[in-house]
Amino acid sequence: MKRLLAIASSLAILASAPLFAEEAKSEGIVITSSATREHFIGSQQTFTGLEYVDPMLATPQAPARTSVFLVDFAPGSRSAWHTHPAGQILIVASGKGWVQEWGKERREILPGNAVWIAPGVKHWHGATDKTGMSHYAIQEALDGKNVEWMEKVSDEQYKE
């Protein structure tokens, strides 16, 4: 929780996407720091609980289609059910979390775990009820879209 509070207190105001796009046109390699990216709290329409999101590469420049986010979940927080048209990779950085495919059992994920979620698979992921979790979320856009959000995970589904 201390890490989440520290992240919250250091949220940057400057949006990096326009800056990154301009720099990418003139530079072959662009480095951005966490302080220059616009961090945000997860939307209550697509998350339950408290999540801080660092859009490490949220607006890739064509022909690239890959976006990368670092998501910090407080204990008990999770994404809504969703799919990705080109799939998703999660890499757990710290803590303990859960991931679940629609109609299957919830599975534990730990630091160092890499999770592949195939295209079109309805799923959710987030922290356990007692432990926070941070993961990198990597996904590609297909026809300009990288996620299809669905209904929220109910408390009953989360506790199963």
Description of the molecule:
With 160 residues, the chain is mostly beta strands. The protein has a single domain (2-159), classed as Jelly Rolls. It has three helices and 13 strands, in the order ααβββββββββββββα. The strands form four sheets. The chain has a six-stranded antiparallel beta sheet with strand order 1-3-4-12-7-10, covered by helices on one side. Strands 9-8-11 form a three-stranded antiparallel beta sheet, with no helix packed on it. The chain has a two-stranded antiparallel sheet with strand order 2-5.
Summary?
The chain has three helices and 13 strands. The chain is mainly beta.
Q: Could you name the CATH homologous superfamily?
A: Jelly Rolls
Count of discrete structural domains: 1
What is the SS-derived class? mainly beta
Spell the H/E element sequence. HHEEEEEEEEEEEEEH
Distance from first to last alpha carbon = 24 Å
Percent strand: 35-45%
Estimated helix fraction = 10-25%
Strand order of the largest sheet: 1-3-4-12-7-10
CATH class term: Mainly Beta
Q: How many DSSP-defined strands? A: 13
Q: Tally the helices: what do you get? A: 3
Q: Uncertain runs with pLDDT below 50, 5 residues or more?
A: 1-24
- What does the main sheet amount to? 6 strands, antiparallel
The radius of gyration is: 16 Å
Mean pLDDT: 83
CATH architecture descriptor name: Sandwich
Reported by name, the CATH topology is: Jelly Rolls
